[in-house]
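Annex B.
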Amino acid sequence: MASTSGLAITSPSNLSDLKECSGSRKARVLYDYDAANSTELSLLADEVITVFSVVGMDSDWLMGERGNQKGKVPITYLELLN
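Endophilin-B1: predicted structure tokens.
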């Protein structure tokens, strides 16, 4: 179970949900996204990927993984799954 003690997050609820959870979780992609550079991961609507937060990374982004591919993904393009 996740603990919410000590959390003071003003970002979207998806991000606070993720930060309460240890490790990674699954997310459904809401919209297609074309990576702008090699640090980002291109996404296809309706696919499910694994996401996790990285300390120091912009709060509008998460790290995403699909198979052996990994890169930053915009949090607004994701629906975090339980």
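The longest strand covers residues 61-66. Residues 1-12, 18-22 have pLDDT under 50 and may be disordered. Further annotation is deferred to the next reporting cycle.
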